[in-house]
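Dissemination and training. As part of the outreach component of the grant, students in the summer workshop were shown how a complex can be specified as a set of sequence lines and then modelled as a single object. The example used during the hands-on session is reproduced here so that future cohorts can follow it. Participants entered these lines:
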Amino acid sequence: MLLEGKKALIMGLANNRSIAFGIASALKEHGARLAFNYVGEAIKKRVEPISQELGGEFTFQCDVSDDGQIKDAVDLVRERWGTFDILVHSIAFANREDLGGRFIDTTRQGFRVAMEISVYSLTALCRAFENLFNPDASVITMTYLGANRVIPGYNVMGVAKAALEASVRYLAADLGPKSIRVNAVSAGPIKTLAASAVSSFKDSFNYMETHAPLRRNVTAADVGGAAVFLASDLGRSVTGEVLYVDSGFNCVGAG
Ligand code: NAP
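and obtained this result:
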């Protein structure tokens, strides 16, 4: 088992279609111990049964837009685990009206909320948990090709993912001397709750099947496999990286 006894905090599981579900299942399969956050009481009812199904050791409330909740999460993790090994950040949010139409119409408020929740939260969590990471810890976040290419409708989230990928590089530089690695997985389109908010999602999903080198879409389990690699000793010299799990779509120039 590649992750025997490693402790993994999974942040961003909404339901069993979430990418975080695929990651958590794969980490568990390789021996990791798990804990999950939820955003509010209503979501807790959805997260707890899934946590039980995956043998999660505890759940905790953490809305990443609230510094007080991040601090409470750190206190709880310190109390329950002392230190830990893997942080999965699988969180994003933008207002639905900013995920369609023209990017140029993004409002100041819409831009701010997308950046705060989808980008800044990674830095806030890395800083908050910095002293709880074991040596050789691995932080994994989720990104998308819309960071580098124009994907119709992805709009402000594309700008957010570009900033997230840059954050990964700066965080890797800050935390590398402590042997803590920070990487992103750039996944192809997967049918989840968050994806359903993007107006053009169906088109991107269908396009993959005819234009990606592997001629198929990816699954959350595929992302889980990449996460196991990044979290384990197999990825011990990989940091500051964006690993594409997209059936090779990112390398295609013309269809
Ligand atoms: P998902 O199941 O809807 O997961 C998104 C998660 O973000 C949810 O658990 C959501 O919590 C959480 N979240 C939103 N605002 C939050 C806040 N303020 N504090 C804490 N958590 C918050 O969708 P997903 O597709 O798996 O998304 C996971 C990650 O993968 C995102 O970063 C997304 O951009 C990325 N990604 C997705 C795709 C795709 O095609 N699906 C492709 C590439 C990358 P609640 O639901 O409880 O609010």
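Strands lie at 7-11, 33-38, 59-61, 84-89, 133-143, 181-187, 242-245. Students were then asked to discuss how this feature might be tested experimentally.
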